[in-house]
Amino acid sequence: MQVQQNSHSKEGSKSEKVLFFPHDGPASEAKKRRVAIIGTYTPRKCGIATFTNDLSEQLRIHRPNVETQIYALDDAGENLDYDRVERVVQFDDVEAYRDAANAINDSGVDAVWLQHEYGIFGGENGQMVCDFVDRLAAPVILTCHTVLSEPTDKQKAILEHLVARSSRIMVMSLHSRDLLASVYGAPHDRISVIEHGAPDRPFGRQKQFKETHGLDGRDVMMTFGLIGPGKGLERVIEALPAIAEACPNVLYRIVGATHPKLVARQGESYREGLKARIEELGMSRHVEWDNRFLETDELLDQLEACDVYLTSYGNLQQSTSGTLSYAVALGKAVVSTPYTHATELLANDVGVLIEPNSSDAIAAAVIDLFDDREKLRKLQERAYAKGRETIWPQFARKSANLIEAVCEERPRTARLNVATMRTPDFSGVRGISDATGILQHSIGPIPDRRHGYCLDDNARALMLMNVAEDLAGPTRREHSQRYGSFIQHAWNEELGRFRNFISFDRTWCEDEGSEDSNGRTLWALAQTAEINPQPDIRNWAAELYCRVLPRFDDLGSPRAIAFSMLGACAFLRRDPDHGASLEVLRQGVALLRSILAKSRRPDWTWFEAVLGYDNPRLPQALIEAASTLGDEEALSDGLHTLRWIEQQQTSAKGYFRPIGSESFGREHDYVPFDQQPLEASASIDAHRAAYRITGDEARLNGALKAWNWFFGANDRGVVLADVGLGICRDGITPRGLNENCGAESILAFQLAHYSVLEMLKQQRAKAAGEQFEVINR
């Protein structure tokens, strides 16, 4: 250990020897990051408020590339005056959490850092935090200030929910890390242990600060922090007579206000009870109270004036203690019960650990240190050396690294043209298909036979066979027959509906599929009848379409109606005089426009009170029907609702953010995850329909924004699609990729490719002043 003159300190005397430990210099140039921090905040009197303030302040000082915005959890009854906060969030107000989440999403921050402890959020055990975190689009860093080894069912469910939503988790002890993994299922590779930060001050200035505080000649013990029964002050007070007998000049300083929640329940009766006990023991001369919640600088000055710092918690699960971290960093000799944080921080003789709830153990440890001044000094030096690992520059560096870990560079998205559009390999589709059809699901890249097949996916697969380029004739025919056969076998003549789900053993799981699956199948048949390269397959599809269409005059689902309208448009391009298809279009336009008129309101220009899946298909159906029928009002409604849904699905940074599946069922509300390829594909198709009619370059840009979502221009910067393999991952969760490659995702990606390709061809023809022959995709 190096001992040298502290020439940089104004406060130290020239003759005083101090220990000096170098630390990081100024932060190197780094990419700017913006982080929203949620938690209690100063001037609120609690440890998490202090931590939130310290985290923001130390990042500002030591990592100026990180800009923080504070969202302060507030209790209106405390009437606090906050400074430098982005927003004050009433802790028990559901709407306040929603507004805060929307504000954070709109701000476009790179990450959100959530401070969690059960008591600071509203609801039972703070359950309001769950809905709040569900609404956050940016990656979430979670600090677990409390990790219980034996939580209640409610407490466990809340923390498990937060763990599932978090990209990274910060804890301050190894024990907390292991509990998170074993009890709450947190993956080890997402947990970072960053010890509580602490101030950086010179070593060994007790004499100077004792003189300042009128404590010269006293052997000073100290405890500081919010006062309450859990601190174990009773045990220290009971130990005082023995300590005072051995060390007549001892003084025990209890610094800190009574915990506000304790005061609210019972006033100052707890503190007065301690004072009465001190008086009864005849120890009043050996105890000094400072009943204030001190600002950090004054608190540190008082801490520097003590020799021995005491922390005698009875709760040995205490995973974090900021006061302990401060004491160690300032080089105090610490006597502590072996609660979790103390056991780790004071290991290797950094402090003295004693048995809990024992006044005799406290007395013995303190007397031993004051009897042996060299031993006391060595213990203080070891504490100071340990503290160099947690001082603010180190804490800020580790915190900035954690932020950077969730803000990885997103892949650059190229400007696309026809020449650079590589065709997705067909092996992705072939690999998840068999003689029956295309399987629904996968585990990673491996098809999962347990879930069998569904009509929806086989209809999409048939549509892909209609538009796929560079596909050998025999291959296209074979697969068109396979998926067409599935559709044909799904028809239930008796009920006049297609079945949807079939198990791997080819046993139908139902007699009638959903309206949406039936509507999509009508669309697939009509598109096949229009553009499949094989004349006999076109004729088969036309015959089946015409045979089943009259059985679908009672569809009620808006999406089923939209799918059938898209099918009718396709069939009318084959046969412009097909009366049944014209009737489907007219009725569909009337119905969609009617429900839009009933549902829309100033802030909600949509067909339903909820946002579900395949949302852009609704405006797409109106746009294509308007083109076929020459209906200007339908076109206006279609373009207007397309622009509205595009706004909802665009992040503050301009990325495509598909309405997540977790939004299903939420009225006039939606959340960011889970994001799925189906929505991106539908958006591209809707923009393609609008671009084909209007030539508006904004529609092309909207489609390319959704296309780039597949390749990293998204909320997590992850790549879903692999052109070379022809596969696509199943979506984006709060923690990143869903690694599975199901049929819906692969087909959505491949179909999206051909829609984008058609738009680019149209753009090129438009630039060259050429006529462009539109092929329905």
Automatic annotation (TrEMBL):
- Which GO terms label this protein's molecular function in UniProt? glycosyltransferase activity
Q: Which UniProt keywords apply?
A: Transferase
Q: What does the entry give for GO biological process?
A: carbohydrate metabolic process
This protein's source sits in the domain of life called Bacteria
- Basic and acidic residues composition bias: residue spans: 8-17
Coiled coil start-end: none
Q: Which InterPro entries match?
A: 6-hairpin_glycosidase_sf (IPR008928), Glyco_trans_1 (IPR001296)
Q: Which Pfam families match?
A: Glycos_transf_1
Please state every residue range assigned to the domain named Glycosyl transferase family. 210-385
Q: Show the segment(s) annotated as Disordered.
A: 1-23
The name this protein goes by in its record: Glycosyltransferase
Kindly list the organism's lineage: Bacteria, Pseudomonadati, Pseudomonadota, Alphaproteobacteria, Sphingomonadales
